[in-house]
């Protein structure tokens, strides 16, 4: 019998929703920081199957979440396409940027299987070690979000380099997106075959595009990925997280991709959302990660509001974005107790 997380994705609804957190394995946990120090670099940790499995399990042992998300990163896909990748301590990711035809030429057409095999091995090990009722999630970044890092060579405030390239050289930009569509679909299929029960597509920067660009660079590529995965694995469970997208954008993503669930951030109006979509798909979200830092009554109220607004829907409780490293662990415990009390 599957646990609650998978049962919600498959169509059931519970008074006490299943619960997990984006970035649940991360720097707010002392045991993560310890393993991270042992691993050396961040990429080394992602590509070490034993240690990636270990940090994936850490938040499950500590909190008993209903799902585990494999420890990896969305930038492993461009890395496996040959883009150099490293993390500047205290700053974030750096990539050899793809800005013109010549740098695009250097990207491989296929994922390097020596690299992706490490992710799949971490998934198989994790699957074996997890309690039966705990779902295992694989993931990738959506092509648009990954392209914002690949084009700029780093994280940017407003994703301007990718937005500019998409305007100035739409044909080249389309080629970058298409390459990422193929690679991402292959990577999701590999992860499901290795033991992932569901996969999530993170479109963290989908909120910065005008409607026509959103349709072209977010909706269509994500729908293509889902189509390619389901062509090989027809019953693949897929969650799409179009962060920052307006309601009509979410509607386009949901309709064209037929994802099993949509993840939403804390900005979305839950009431309008529920009126518009009801139970057409499951909903994952959307506690403001800052409420988890605030703690106390503010946290209790924020948790209650999420539960109340989504009580009539197929809900998976989560944050509206990843947990931040300064989050006190006792607040995570307080949130979990509040959700599970029903
Ligand atoms: O959710 C999980 O626990 C699974 C692991 C996971 C990580 N990154 C680990 C990570 C997942 C699902 C991601 C997704 C990811 N990575 C996204 C999409 C979701 C989001 O948060 O917006 C993006 C945009 C990235 C790219 C990335 N990775 C950035 C911009 C950074 C630096 C910012 C930061 O928080 O440090 C990372 C690093 C990263 N990825 C860390 C973790 C735990 C922290 C690095 C460290 O341990 O030193």
Give a written overview of the molecule.
There is one protein chain. This protein is of the alpha/beta class. The protein has one domain (4-340): TIM Barrel (Alpha-Beta Barrel), CATH 3.20.20.210. The chain is 53% helix and 13% strand. The strands form two sheets. A seven-stranded parallel β-sheet has the order 1-4-5-6-7-8-9. Strands 2-3 form a two-stranded antiparallel ribbon. Strand 7 (261-263), helix 13 (270-277) and strand 8 (282-287) form a beta-alpha-beta unit. Helix 4 (49-63) runs parallel beside helix 7, helix 7 (113-129) runs parallel beside helix 10 (170-194) and helix 11 (211-232) packs parallel to helix 12. Bound molecules: coproporphyrinogen III. The site of coproporphyrinogen III (CP3) has 22 residues, from strand 3 and strand 4.
Write out key terms for the chains shown:
7-stranded parallel sheet, 16 helices, two-stranded antiparallel sheet, TIM Barrel, binds coproporphyrinogen III, alpha/beta
Write the layout of secondary structure elements.
Layout: H1 4-9, H2 30-39, H3 42-46, H4 49-63, E1 67-69, H5 76-80, E2 85-88, E3 92-95, H6 101-105, H7 113-129, E4 135-141, H8 143-152, H9 160-168, H10 170-194, E5 198-203, H11 211-232, E6 238-242, H12 247-257, E7 261-263, H13 270-277, E8 282-287, H14 289-294, H15 296-309, E9 315-319, H16 329-340
Parallel strand pairs: 1-4, 4-5, 5-6, 6-7, 7-8, 8-9
Antiparallel strand pairs: 2-3
This protein binds coproporphyrinogen III.
Coproporphyrinogen III binds next to strand 3 and strand 4.
